[in-house]
Amino acid sequence: MAAGKSGITPRSEDYSSWYNDVIKQAGLSDHSPVRGCMVIKPYGYAIWERVQSVLDGMIKATGHQNAYFPLFIPMSFLTREAEHVEGFAKECAVVTHHRLKAGGEGEAAVVVDPAAELEEPLIVRPTSETIMYSVFADWIESWRDLPLLINQWANVVRWEMRTRPFLRTAEFLWQEGHTAHETLEEAEAEVRKMLDVYATLAEDYMAMPVIKGRKTEAERFAGALHTYCIEALMQDGKALQAGTSHNLGQNFAKAFNVSFTGREGKVEYAWQTSWGVSTRLIGALIMTHSDDNGLVLPPKLAPIEVVVIPIYKSDEDRDLVLGASAELARACEGKIRLHIDDRDQFRPGHKFFEWEKKGVPIRLELGPRDLKENKVVLARRDTGEKSPVSRDGLLEHLVGLLGEIQANLFQRALEFREQSTRRASNYDEFKQILKEHRGLVQAHFSLDPEWEERIKNETKATVRCLPIDAELPAGAQCIFSGAEAKSDALFAIAY
Amino acid sequence: MAAGKSGITPRSEDYSSWYNDVIKQAGLSDHSPVRGCMVIKPYGYAIWERVQSVLDGMIKATGHQNAYFPLFIPMSFLTREAEHVEGFAKECAVVTHHRLKAGGEGEAAVVVDPAAELEEPLIVRPTSETIMYSVFADWIESWRDLPLLINQWANVVRWEMRTRPFLRTAEFLWQEGHTAHETLEEAEAEVRKMLDVYATLAEDYMAMPVIKGRKTEAERFAGALHTYCIEALMQDGKALQAGTSHNLGQNFAKAFNVSFTGREGKVEYAWQTSWGVSTRLIGALIMTHSDDNGLVLPPKLAPIEVVVIPIYKSDEDRDLVLGASAELARACEGKIRLHIDDRDQFRPGHKFFEWEKKGVPIRLELGPRDLKENKVVLARRDTGEKSPVSRDGLLEHLVGLLGEIQANLFQRALEFREQSTRRASNYDEFKQILKEHRGLVQAHFSLDPEWEERIKNETKATVRCLPIDAELPAGAQCIFSGAEAKSDALFAIAY
Q1: What is the ipTM of this complex?
Q2: Cβ-based contacts of B66 with chain A (< 8 Å)
Q3: A116 domain-assigned
Q4: SS3 for A134?
């Protein structure tokens, strides 16, 4: 039951405890005094900054511009789009007053001033379609103003009942893209383009294989025509939605009067999209690669790619070893994110342990004896291998090895996902697979919402997506109802 | 009265209208449907991203780490530090409920669910001392955990009655640094170090000269021992506080039990600091350099340093000119932020006008005749000078000229400030200076709070700061009361 000396419960014992332990031991986040809200600690935030840096570059390279819209949304805005209100006007933070006043003694020294009630309550944004599109309506007049391609990095709040660090928190950080186009076709192309951007972020940077697909009606975004997503498989056999891209059609444009004078002089409603990923990705990262010794980070998103541990006893050795460390740091500058752990108050063993828990891809041990032989000891976090390497050509070796580790992590995760993906040919088999293995279950499906609901109630599995790449054989039957199958579907129990 | 064809009211007519017009014409911000909250438009946000990028680098280079703390603060937290509650538990956004429910028809379709009232109201952070330090208390155990050097980039909300874009908005973006130290001396060194970082940002990047000084008791941060600031002078003779750095002493440490076991084994309270700058800096930038033709940006913070306007009539010329533009862009890549305005639907004159209003430091006009002579036409935004320059060595010329423009803007602003700084030797003179010139007024001052209040009431001028560099002659008398002067003080009417 208890975590070992690493403070980390083995995954085989309790995956959920393992997850919390990894976060704690790696210093990624902490509890806060506010229900459902976490503190993102410096090391966790540094990973998020890496994600932001990579993704922001891709968002700008695809022609989008960053902007910033208000945190607050007038309550009435939520009512304007009929489906959106169902999805988002529920558990949210409601600002009703704008002033406190002096009260009693101690903690009651201030109270809400009843005289300062707002005429209309404000909602802390759970997502920004409504507030943004009310402004887009002013920005767009003619087809010449289109496409409008906006992105926002922001905090959002959804009052969740059950929260878990990174995966589901009342407040979280994200980016939300919001665009407006002349035609449905352009909007659809945008939605698919950003889905590809998310897949690139996931696979090429997070080393996390994803399946691109479309959501069923039951799972799509409230107010969208349809929603695309990237889905990943976690080590415990549960799926995780890592990013979504919505084709909003003209639904919000009609609700917020986002219209333009078209090329033929006719006033038309814009075709819109929205798409987002959040700090949830850090949860996905943890559950894709980490092990019983702690976090494992893919080099491209690691705040520190190589940590150097100087090993010495005498002052003379100390000078030698720290000198060699500094020399290496200079050689790596601008090429590798390298950190020298020169803290005197900790022994090397303590440091090994700490950086292992923090998932740094490569550890270098610099000791006087090795240095005299022109060597250093190199340990890989992904495989645990440890061996001496020559200092000649060390930078090139490190660069190459970081690439190899990145590729290895992706390959390992891909193999796990492939081994964990099974096809069911009838409902009994479907249930059996979920019971025995969890994982991803492929099935020909009629898309009947009643069956979807029943499957969810009976197995907890949901349609994660209708994979874009999936092919449906001619005449295929739904494995549940026997009716005509409309799509190949990917089911899983999900986070 | 009216703005000319540029849409910009001349400064001599109405400085306040000029300010709003520059913002509108440059596309920096827009109104929002939420009272007191603005939308930061892409071009305005791009300037903020430049500020963030520069400042974040300096904050990290001085050893700080970014983290993220909750948006919400339990109401009772504000009461714990006696002065802080006075300063911040007033006009703020109060979250009292966490759910909406179905209501009537139309805009009343949702209402606040009275059953979902929070046990304790939450305040949307006006600043994060209280929420952060309640967590710091858990992070700090021993002197080995110090110094703790944290920074956060975030949105904050202060329910302001009168708002102006960038200068004073209900929600704004900022960074807030929060640190904890072993000794008062270390905390004081930190506060001064970050004041210097802010002065470097202002002078070396914003090209805005600032005076470093200390606030009087009346103007210091609620809960601080003392507050340092950088003060700048705007074109209309009003001062603007551009950044603050607070030595919090042990005030918050005692309120939130931020304590540590010291080197001698005794439990002590930590010495803390906080410091911040906000999107207000963009308002300062506008009012330091811009003119009646629109925004003027210092090159180092300009999202676009050089804009290229291709000039052509025939298709043949178009190919020639766009080819030369692309060649120049390639040469500048990674060295100069260059943009080619190749929009076909606008004429060159329209583009000149637009980029002038957006304050791009250098405009290049590429026309076929000039190109045949191996020349381009270069226009400087700061001086309005326009002349042909050779394409040979153009990149080096541009790099050099951008440096020259940066230096010129600073020098111009510095000369204006020096001309606008006057010393008063008695109260009549003091009032006369403010009436005739506004500007900065230096005066030997007793620091008597009653006089400070009276001066404010009678002249609207406040003590902007007690300049760090100021020298007080031996035996100097207060120009107001005739009592012994305690400091040289800088007065001004302020934003």
Answers
A1: 0.96
A2: 42, 45-46, 49
A3: no
A4: helix
